[in-house]
Amino acid sequence: MMKTNILTVIIILCFANVSVAQKYKFGKVSKAELIEKEHATDPEANAAVLYREIKTSFDYNSGEGFYLTTDVFERIKIYNKEGFEWATQEIDLYQSTSGPSDDVAGLKGYTYYLDNDGKMQEVKLKNDGVFDVVANKYLRKTKFTMPGLREGCVIEFKYTVKSPFIGNIDEFKFQETIPVDKVSVRFSAPEYFYFQTYQNGWIPYNIEKGSKERRIILGMEGKFTGSGIRTNRKVKTKEITFQENIFNIDIENVPALKEEAYAGNINNYATSIRFELSYTDFPGSTMDVYSTTWEAVSKTTYNNLEDDLDRKGYFESELATATKDAKTQDEKILAIYNFVKNKMNWNGNGGYYSRDGVKDAYKKEVGNAADINLMLIGMLRQAGLNANPVLLSTKTHGIPLFPTRNGFNYVIAAVERSNDVVLLDATDKNAAIGILNPQLINWQGRLIRKDRSSDWVPLTPSAPATQSSLVNIDFKDDFSISGNSQNRFTGHYAWKYRKNYTDLNADSARKELEKEMPQTELSEVSFENLEKSQQPVTLIYNFEAFDMAEDVSGKIYFSPMVFLSEKENPFKLEERLYPVDFSYARKDRYIVTINIPEGYSVASLPENAVFNLGENTGSFRYLISQAGNKVQLSVEFAINKAYITADEYTDLKKFYELLIAKEQEKVVLSKA
Description:
Shape: globular
Helix content: 10-25%
Number of strands: 38
Strand content: 35-45%
Structural class: alpha+beta
Mean pLDDT: 90
Strand order of the largest sheet: 5-4-8-2-1-10-15-12
């Protein structure tokens, strides 16, 4: 027994030594990493971050002061082709209209793989795999795609970003939608810089804090200022000693964020940390405050938007023609909104600053989100309407956790009326007044008025999207079914049909609809109001469906919901730690009339059922009855909240289980 215990201790110590000794160095990929066929703890993962190292520090340049230096090194294992998306990366670089801007240097990358002889090969990232994209005048991106990809390869890259924006520190991410084996973050700052930290996610980790002495050299005429230490002339030099505060975070074996239906941007809930610069306090200088308020952010942003909002000479004559028949406030809003939507073409770029100015965009009839929507606001104001910009963050951009202009990446228009606020986005030709692309419905937007006051406004529509369907069903001799369906859609349901079907011909539209209805053939498909954004969309079609009924010993079994029912519960996780994002409330109603085939009678019907989700979160009602030779079914389903918290997830999952089970229940017909 003694020998066994000694052996166990030796094994544990060996493993501990291996763990401590394990180092990740650029260019030192192991054969074991290449041989690995699947992730040890997540075999279904398409890729995994083997190692991520981020080091951010404040360096000093005489005559310029402090600046941020961030070194990034990352190694990723790609298991299959679905993991290739992780081989494309992008680096955000913030720009100044006057003065220094972010810059990236030292970008290197390699793809490693094993050849047919089992030898390690490498492919170097070259210039043709790196390109710059200008997002707006304040942001450009360096994108790169690793070369020589194949299943089982390992990629690694490193680069350094130098930034003069000492108050703009990117988020440090510890969690992804793939497993992360190890993350090492080191954040170092002089004692003159004071930070608040914002932690997100639910994976626990420790922040190890320390400090060390540091020295820098500056000129004798140098002095501390709000942005650091500056010199007026370099006659003599002086050594300054100060303490540097150090924050170390090391995390291992971080599980993947498992994405499920209605997740929105799942990265919003990833485990991460942000350092916000609150203020700087240099000896001999006044304190400079960087931590700000949403009111201050709004005021500064409006100052930068004002020129484009006030410019109007370029559109006055055309606008007068477009609005000549508009008398009421609502008519003016609609006329101007449609005018801008029809004239302008969106280039696909967001932003809340105009790229080349609204006048130039108007002339070219193309622009980014700011070009188009700032122009829209200017026209609405010209018509005497109380119109102002609303800043927001799209779902892909994330949720702004604290006051910063970088938290926003899009702007829309708002018209404040006596009892409500109307939101408008003229980049989307399929949108209606008050109906935004679901990618824009992310938390709240910040409305900024001309007098610089500001408020949060909800981005979700006040009314739910609705679907109303009338379906008539007949049985054929072979127990297939045929019939017709009349459908009416409002709100985001109508937006979705406009987006997907406006540009399709009749045959293409029919084929697309059939993809959503298995074992069903459609004919005489017709839409109404696809091009009238303020009207409900109607859809009418005839159908023939197969294998919807089953003949068992002379009895017919079928679900009266036929192809209309939910087939699968979208919520499969045992536990969900992030909210359910439906984007908008919804209400569906189906009225189905089934003609009983001649020679048959109803043997049994499903029981009626009504059940609710929470106090007023959702509801489901299933009422079925026989009237003469017909079976009539009424089904109503509602989700009344755009967002449902993780605490309600278990109840939501059970709610869907119950309604799906109910919709699958059978009517039984027997021979009369």
